[in-house]
Design a protein that fits this description.
Blueprint (H helix, E strand, L loop, with lengths): L1 H7 L6 H8 L6 H11 L1
Length: 40
């Protein structure tokens, strides 16, 4: 939902934004990167 809102507002969403949304720490960058790769 956050990504859709960012898209509609012509804004980007970053790896750190996704980690904040899901409550993940800095060490879990790889999980988010895999999630973003799958989504794209």
């Amino acid at each position: 939902m956050q990504a859709c809102l960012a898209y509609v507002n012509f804004e980007g969403i970053s790896n750190s934004d996704i980690r904040k949304i899901f409550g993940l720490g800095e060490k879990e960058k790889a999980k988010v990167s895999r999630l973003l790769t799958s989504a794209v």
